[in-house]
Design goal:
It contains 5 helices and 3 strands, in the order ααβααββα. With 125 residues, it is of the alpha+beta class. The chain starts with 33 loop residues before the first helix and ends with a helix.
């Protein structure tokens, strides 16, 4: 006979926000976007939502990360279509300026809606 001492409960389901923006893929589901969740990527998207454009060096100073780390996170956001990068030169120095795309803004808002739903569900319990 099996013991019930190690009973597993289903994880708490968080209600979807009432209004969810469409995902970049065209879907309207409210699944959690892990791409946005990561600290540096969330920071990049949040900073760009209120301060467009920002240069690579400005973003680097905001988050105190290495060139390689920032570059890798920015590239993932670019590949997802959440951020655009315009490269140019200032004299002989390369300059990269980043902007949040409409899909990136929707993804950020969707993430914030999800977090708000988690907070509301937690306060009700």
């Amino acid at each position: 006979m099996k013991s019930n001492t190690h009973r597993h409960e289903a994880p708490m389901r968080v209600p979807a926000p009432e209004k969810t923006a469409p995902r970049a893929t065209g879907s309207t589901d409210s699944t959690f976007d892990r791409l946005v969740y990561e600290r540096v990527r969330l920071g990049i998207m949040s900073a760009l939502a209120v301060n467009e454009p920002l240069t690579f060096n400005e973003l680097k100073a905001l988050f105190d990360v290495s060139d390689g780390n920032l570059s890798a996170h920015a590239r993932k956001l670019e590949e997802a279509g959440y951020v655009e990068c315009a490269k140019s030169f200032a004299g002989r120095r390369p300059k990269s300026e980043y902007r949040l795309t409409p899909a990136g803004r929707q993804a950020l808002y969707r993430y914030l809606d999800h977090i708000e739903a988690v907070i509301k569900a937690t306060r009700r319990s």
